[in-house]
Design goal:
alpha+beta, 12 helices, paralog of FGE (formylglycine-generating enzyme), 4-stranded mixed beta sheet, 4-stranded antiparallel beta sheet
């Protein structure tokens, strides 16, 4: 059998045998929140989706060539429809009675809305989708509530033109209804400003239609940064410095390949706040048609099996994840897959992205210049910091659902192991500056530990090597950049 792992990674994998796999149970979501939602509404959710409403939202997103990553959930506690988010998962909550008259629409030539009420309800749905598309629930641009409402109205105008609304007045009746304040409020602009915003989006779509005389992809909502922000996520500046790499005093129970501890100096760089998510990787895979080769190792009960047909869409068991799983770290990617993603990301953004060197990874995990000498990334209490073998329920979790380290980086310990750029090689006692690892080798470095590992394997100094063509349920990655992100 070919050598796929070094012995430490085999230990990391086969720790899974001692764990009992249990499936995700959707039940209470007590801190569920949304733009208009009371914190206590919809505390009981069922993952069963209304496929007809799902198809309708998918059709709306196709206007922008976007894949649907939302959970579409009936909720009788909301008045009509609302955008909501919890733990990074985006929801569209809708009142089933309110949406009943549009849930079957397919927007084929013979199946368009025919009543004013249908257009009104579609307008409301497009408006709420617009809040998600413009990232209003996380609000990275710091927009005021009224500004967000106007942007959502503009996005709705663009969408409804593309869906075939016969004229703007047909849809604008939703904004002229008694439920929309003429004077506005602290959170909502006056009615006429909202109507103007809707017309702005409508006019943009019409102008592009006249210019291109064909299929539309739509403008990037909110700004030209929308698409790029979706691809990259937040990048954290790591100020360069000098540190001790390897088996330092606090690490305890080090393996031989972590010795000797040695001095390393690094320049400034940026590193991803989180591991690359399934949603981010989806852009790459769908645009390029990139296909991973070979089988991937999956976890079935307490057994490890190599399975064909498993790719980035799959969970730890090798089954396709639901469409709303965009915030989970991508799994089943080889070193070659991860590198191909960084090359594509560089070409899309004009900024050079790559995998981190092992030294960059460890320095960032230790907290860089802000590091306090912890055993794990961000502290010595792994329970608060990481999803690992003792608390993960034997599965990965969405990113950013444990505490960050000193730099604001998440999941550097646990959740999924992370590919680094380097070949696996022995350490040297010599001081080094911006080291790139061994010159040659069979294995590439993997860092961080995963959701199925012991605490020792989640230490910031722990390292292992894996064949670059290997794919499995433990492996993901994050990206770095030397260039300043604008």
């Amino acid at each position: 059998m070919r050598k796929m792992y070094n012995m430490k990674y085999l230990r990391l994998l086969f720790f899974q045998f001692s764990l009992l796999y249990s499936s995700l149970a959707w039940a209470q979501l007590p801190d569920f929140y949304g733009k208009y939602a009371d914190p206590n509404i919809c505390t009981q959710l069922n993952i069963t989706q209304d496929e007809k409403i799902l198809n309708l939202v998918t059709r709306i997103l196709e206007v922008y060539n976007l894949d649907n990553t939302y959970v579409i959930q009936a909720c009788s506690s909301v008045e009509n429809c609302v955008a909501a988010q919890r733990n990074g998962v985006q929801y569209i909550l809708y009142n089933p009675d309110y949406m009943d008259d549009i849930r079957t629409l397919s927007f084929t030539e013979s199946d368009m809305p025919v009543s004013q009420g249908q257009w009104n309800h579609l307008m409301v749905l497009a408006h709420e989708v617009g809040h998600h598309m413009n990232n209003h629930l996380t609000n990275p641009l710091g927009l005021k509530p009224r500004e967000m409402e106007l942007k959502a109205d503009e996005t709705a105008g663009f969408i409804l033109y593309q869906l075939g609304v016969p004229d703007p007045e047909t849809a604008l009746s939703a904004l002229r209804s008694p439920g929309v304040s003429e004077a506005g409020s602290a959170s909502h602009p006056p009615r006429e400003e909202r109507i103007a915003a809707f017309r702005k989006g409508w006019d943009k779509a019409a102008a592009k239609d006249n210019k291109n005389s064909g299929t539309q992809t739509g403008p990037k909502p909110d700004s030209e940064r929308f698409y790029i922000d979706s691809l990259v996520g937040k990048m954290i500046l790591v100020r360069g410095g000098t540190f001790k790499m390897g088996c330092t005093r606090e690490q305890k129970a080090c393996d031989d390949d972590e010795m000797p501890a040695h001095q390393v100096t690094l320049d400034d760089y940026y590193i991803g706040e989180t591991e690359v998510t399934m949603g981010q990787y989806r852009y790459f895979a769908l645009e390029t048609g990139h296909v991973s080769t070979g089988k991937s190792v999956v976890l079935k009960g307490s057994d490890l099996k190599a399975k064909s047909g498993v790719d980035w869409r799959c969970d730890e068991t090798g089954e396709k994840r639901p469409y709303h799983s965009a915030s989970y770290p991508v799994l089943h990617v080889s070193w070659f897959d991860a590198t191909a993603y960084t090359e594509w990301l560089s070409s899309k953004t004009g900024i050079s992205y790559r995998l981190p060197t092992e030294a960059e990874w460890e320095y960032a995990a230790r907290g860089g210049q802000r590091g306090k000498g912890f055993q794990y990334a961000g502290g010595n209490n792994l329970e608060e910091l990481a999803w690992y073998g003792e608390n993960s329920n034997n599965k990965p979790h969405i990113v950013k659902s444990r505490a960050s380290n000193e730099l604001g980086l998440f999941d550097m310990s646990g959740n999924v192991c992370e590919w680094c750029a380097d070949y696996m090689g022995a350490y040297s006692e010599e001081n080094q500056s911006n080291p790139a690892g061994a010159d040659t080798g069979e294995l590439r470095v993997v860092r961080g530990g995963s959701w199925g590992n012991t605490d020792n394997l989640c230490r910031v100094a722990c390292r292992t090597g894996v064949r670059p063509d290997n794919r499995d349920f433990n492996l993901g990655f994050r990206v770095v950049s030397q260039a300043k992100n604008k």
